[in-house]
Amino acid sequence: MKHLLRTLAADITGNVIRLLVRFLTAVRADWKGIEPVQKQRVYFANHTSNGDMPMIWSVLPPALRRETRPVAAADYWLKNKLRAFAGGEVFKAVLIDRRREVNDDPMAKILAAMEDGASLIIFPEGNRNMTEDPLLPFKAGLYNMGKARPDVDLVPTWVANLNEIMPKGEIIPLPLICTVTFGAPIHVHEDESMDDFLQRAADALADLRPREVKP
């Protein structure tokens, strides 16, 4: 009974978050290079705000949203009981411990989630981009995922305007329309080096930026 109540509470909370995100930002999805069909995917996105993940999650159709798990930092989502509930039971996040002194294998957790059939939301820059550059250098994780599961689509996903809606340190979002653009999927080519692939992935993601914000 307790489990059923927590599941119900998670479903209700998820719907509240989704409606709140849509109300505050008028977010819309632009499926530019791929259709929103039920297929296992890794959505790799730019990262400028803590709101990036809920924004992507909220625009996925219900069937896709139920099977999609964000890869997120454990230190952020386990900071208090409310975040732990949201991260663990609403978003069902794959929580990664970033502390160096902890013997944790993040890739093992990620690949286990993929083997279970989950789609994932990841931020290959690793940290929020607070620079003027469009993207920070990508970490190796996206390449390792593509090598381990070549059957899974790697989908570039650009979140536009969110850093202006909720700048770092702000509590009240600013009213501004946000767009989440999903591009054509990519895969790791046979014998492609990690550096070459990560550059190609970064280019595919950067190409989705709205023209008005390109230099």
Give me a quick take on this structure.
By secondary structure, the protein is α/β, with parallel strands linked by helices. It has a single domain, classed as Glycerol-3-phosphate (1)-acyltransferase, CATH 3.40.1130.10.
How would you describe this structure to a colleague?
The protein has 215 residues and is of the alpha/beta class. The chain has one domain: Glycerol-3-phosphate (1)-acyltransferase, CATH 3.40.1130.10. It has 9 helices and 7 strands. It has helices spanning 2-25, 52-59, 62-66, 74-77, 81-90, 106-115, 141-148, 162-165, 194-206; strands spanning 28-31, 41-45, 68-73, 94-96, 119-122, 153-160, 179-182. A 7-stranded mixed β-sheet has the order 1-7-6-2-5-3-4, sandwiched between helices. The radius of gyration is 17 Å and the shape is globular. The N and C termini lie far apart (56 Å).
Chain-averaged pLDDT: 87
Major beta-sheet overview: 7 strands, mixed
- How many strand segments? 7
Total number of distinct structural domains:
1
From the structure above, extract its key features.
215 residues; alpha/beta; Glycerol-3-phosphate (1)-acyltransferase; 7-stranded mixed β-sheet; 9 helices; 7 strands; globular
Topology, element by element:
Elements: H1 2-25, E1 28-31, E2 41-45, H2 52-59, H3 62-66, E3 68-73, H4 74-77, H5 81-90, E4 94-96, H6 106-115, E5 119-122, H7 141-148, E6 153-160, H8 162-165, E7 179-182, H9 194-206
Helix pairs in contact: 1-2, 1-5
